[in-house]
Amino acid sequence: GGAGEADVEHKHRHRPVGPSGLRTSSMHGPCPATKFGPKACMLENPRAVMHIQDPASQRLTWSKAPKSVLVIKKIQDDRLLQPFKELCIFLVEVKNMIVYVEKKVLEDSALTNDSFESLKKKLCTFQEGYDDLSDRIDFIICLGGDGTLLYASSLFQDSVPPVMAFHLGSLGFLTPFNFETYQSQVTQVIEGNVAIILRSRLKVKVVKENRQKKNGVQEDRLIVTKLGENETGRATKQYQVLNEVVVDRGPSSYLSNVDLFLDGRLITTVQGDGLIVCTPTGSTAYAAAAGASMIHPNVPAIMITPICPHSLSFRPIVVPAGVDLKIMLSPDARNTAWLSFDGRKRQEICHGDSITITTSCYPVPSICFRDPVNDWFESLAECLHWNVRKRQSHLTDVEDY
User: Fold this and answer.
1) pLDDT in tens, 56-92
2) Taking the model in full, what pTM does it have?
3) Which of 41, 67, 145, 193 has its CA 20 to 30 A from that of 4?
4) What stretch or stretches form a coiled coil here (predicted)?
């Protein structure tokens, strides 16, 4: 069970299976050459995160027929009640699937005392932060906006099952499917051979000094894996992040003052409102609002974007996927900083604490409506109105020159 049941259909069957059970390949032949001329070669690197692949070659297939599906519904949205009911009835009664839903979704009063009541007994429930779903779910269906996909990512700290996201929310940049034809679309996913895109995540490790007084808001186990305390008395926690890690000045009136290290080397000190470290998927979220470029999710990269920097020359930069980034308060910083992951889990960072960020080896396999390239550009046009402009009129006669 789980995401290990799924892989990517490809032309070269000898390709290795990636950490999430998704096979990757390129239509342009084998992996990039590592030999150069008669004698030069590149050392094998066991720490390699990924290799370049053709997005069009990424297809979903099943080694066994999927049996269990997790349905994630946006909470407190009455518009989703009817689609949610229809989908659950279709999955249970028509497709004979084992359906998991969040317990608090079924506690909605609008789902009681109606024809759906009998079906509720057939649904499996889970509680956020308490139940481990990693070995139970074959694929995921999201109903709502982009936040539902971020939430689905947060539930799986290791391998993530394939995600099919329906656009029923406010933005829908990450949710390419329309619900009108859900039966045929879900059937096609169950049968396999659909396009898929691997959305890279960030692996974030937060190390805090063990203090008498706890700073920030109380943390739960939603997207946190506690690694314990080492011999120096530091508490370490780890997160998987799909969009971005944000370090900002919080309620302080002083400039944020944090040091940024790359592979152990001090790159710069950020003086401004803060810093965004994002994946290509997150490049169209907060980073885009802060002036960064938009990066296609298939590009193996990490983007670093300052928030309102007090420097005219501090531009967003893109670094290779797999580098080790480290963020700490500058020794002479006047105030603490605040940290959040995909807009959640906000907590305070003090002197001596550190944030280490690199590319996770567990991406989110997102099922495409058409293909990774067309879906992305359609989202740019539909959701962000990218490059929308009144067309320049054509020349009519020689006097227009």
Assistant:
1) 788 998 999 999 999 999 887 888 889 999 999 999 9
2) 0.83
3) 145
4) none
